[in-house]
Amino acid sequence: NPEVFILAIESSCDDTAAAVLQNDKVLSNVVANQLIHTQYGGVVPELASRAHQQNIVPVVAAALKNANIKKQQLSAIAFTQGPGLMGSLLVGSSFAKSLALALGIPLIAVNHMQAHVLAHFITEDGYEKPTFPFLALTISGGHTQIIKVTDFFDMTVIGETTDDAVGEAFDKSAKILGLPYPGGPLIDKYAQLGNPKAFTFTKPKVPGLNFSFSGLKTAILYFIQKKKLENPAFVDENLNDICASIQYTIIEILMDKLKLAVKETGITQIAIGGGVSANSGIRNTLKTAENRYGWKTFIPKFEYTTDNAAMIGIVGYQKFLTRTFETSAVVSRARIQL
Ligand code: KG4
Ligand code: ZN
C-alpha cells in the first residue's frame, strides 16, 4: 500500500489549524489561537473570520514544514465543512479548494463533530483505540453530545444539550466569578484546591439522555449575588471551594447521563473528546469509573481533543481509503448532522 499524505485544515470557530498525516499517524499539528476574543468574553464571528484569513497561509506553511513534506507530495486535502461559524468555515474551505485545484489532488469534506469522535483513531504511542461499538461523549464550548458509534461513519446522537454546551457552563460560571474567558481551564485549576462539597447546586431534571446547563448558570448567578450582599469578598475568599463545587456539579450531570446511556445501550466503552475533556476532574472521575462500573474509557492526547486539524486529517484518511471525494462545488454548512 502506498503512503497517503493528507493536509488537513480546520477553521470552524476561533482556532486556525493545519496538520499533515501520513496514513493514520500525525506528522505535524499546528494551531494558531485567536487571542483577540479574550477581551470580548466570547468569540466574535467577524473578528474570527478576519483572523483566519491572516493565519491560514502561515499555519499551513508551518504544518508542511514541521512535517518535512512538500505540497507536491500531498495525496489529498481535507477541510472542515461544518458545523461552525460560516465566515470562519469559508476561509478554510476556500483555501482548501484552491490548493487542491492547484495541485490537482482530491478534496475531502469533514464533519467537525465526527472528527472529534474519530480523533481516537489517530495512531499514537501509549494510546489505545476503542473498538466498535462505543459511546462517545463530546464536550466542548459548542457541543455536548452522547453519540453511539457503530462504525467510522455510522454514528447516532442519543443525547445532547437542550441549551448551553458544557464548555459554556464552565465559561459562563467563570464569568460570573469574574474570571477571564475562556474560564473553563481556570475553574479546573482552582477546583483542584477546593472542596467539591462546600456548596450545593441543584442538578437540572432533564428526561432521558439530554442535558441542560442554563439553569445551573442561573443558580450560580443568584447564589453569588446573594452571598456577595452578605460579604462582598465572598468570591475572593472562597474561590477554590466555589470552583470545586461548580465543577463537581457539572461532572455529576455528565456522569448521571453516561451511566444511563451505558444502561440503555449495554455499551461500556466510553471515548471522550472536545476541549472540556481536558478537565482534570472529568478525567479522574472517568478513571475511577473504570474500576467502579467496569467501563473502559478512552481519552485522546490533549492536542487532539481541543479543536485541531489532526482530527480532520484522520477522517480525511478514512475517506481517502473509500475515495469519498468532493468537487469545488461542495458548500460549507453552519449546521450539519452527524
Ligand atoms: O473543543 P474546544 O477547544 O472548542 C470548541 O468549543 O469546539 O473547547 C473549548 C472549551 C471552552 O469552553 C473551554 O473553557 C473548555 O473547552 N475547556 C475546559 C478545560 N479546558 C478547556 N473546561 C473545563 N476544564 C478544562 N480544563
Ligand atoms: Zn470542536
Automatic annotation (TrEMBL):
One of its GO terms (biological process) is tRNA threonylcarbamoyladenosine modification. It catalyses: L-threonylcarbamoyladenylate + adenosine(37) in tRNA = N(6)-L-threonylcarbamoyladenosine(37) in tRNA + AMP + H(+). Keywords: Acyltransferase, Cytoplasm, Iron, Metal-binding, Transferase, tRNA processing. Residues 25-313 form the Gcp-like domain. Belongs to the KAE1 / TsaD family. Substrate binds at residues 138-142, 171, 184, 188, 279. The keyword Phosphoprotein does not apply. InterPro entries: ATPase_NBD, Gcp-like_dom, KAE1/TsaD, Peptidase_M22_CS, TsaD. It comes from Flavobacterium segetis. Its cofactor is Fe(2+). SUPFAM superfamilies: Actin-like ATPase domain (SSF53067). This is tRNA N6-adenosine threonylcarbamoyltransferase. PANTHER family: TRNA N6-ADENOSINE THREONYLCARBAMOYLTRANSFERASE, TRNA N6-ADENOSINE THREONYLCARBAMOYLTRANSFERASE, MITOCHONDRIAL. One of its GO terms (cellular component) is cytoplasm. The gene is tsaD. It comes from the Bacteria. It is found in: Cytoplasm. Fe cation binds at residues 112, 116, 307. Binds 1 Fe(2+) ion per subunit. Its EC number is 2.3.1.234. One of its GO terms (molecular function) is iron ion binding.
